[in-house]
Amino acid sequence: MKSKTTALILSILLGELGIDRFYLGYTGLGILKLITGGGFCIWWLVDIILIATGKLTAKDGSELA
């Protein structure tokens, strides 16, 4: 089970590098985010909002605790 707090901190600090997506198990999206600089910072901001509101889950479908 992945931690919501850890995912949010990773997203805020290292989200432009895709580290948050790697943590949640989305390797392909993490690489894409790394190459595009966090989706030109738009995807980075959207991920912060999704994690904070609980809309983003881990790849295996489990909720963030």
Structure in a nutshell:
The protein is mainly alpha-helical.
Walkthrough of the structure:
The protein is mainly α. Helix content is 65%, strand content 0%. The radius of gyration is 10 Å and the shape is globular. The relative contact order is 0.23.
What structural keywords apply?
single chain; 65 residues; 0% strand; 65% helix; 5 helices; mainly alpha
Overall strand count: 0
Q: Could you say which overall geometry the principal axes of the C-alpha atoms support? A: globular
Order of helices and strands: HHHHH
Largest sheet: none
Termini gap = 7 Å
Helix content: 55-70%
Could you say which structural class the secondary elements and strand pairing correspond to? mainly alpha
Count of DSSP-assigned helices: 5
- The proportion of strand residues reads under 5%
Rg, rounded, reads 10 Å
Mean pLDDT: 96
* Weakly predicted, low-confidence segments: none
List the SSEs and their pairings.
Layout: H1 4-14, H2 19-24, H3 27-35, H4 37-40, H5 42-53
Helix pairs in contact: 1-5
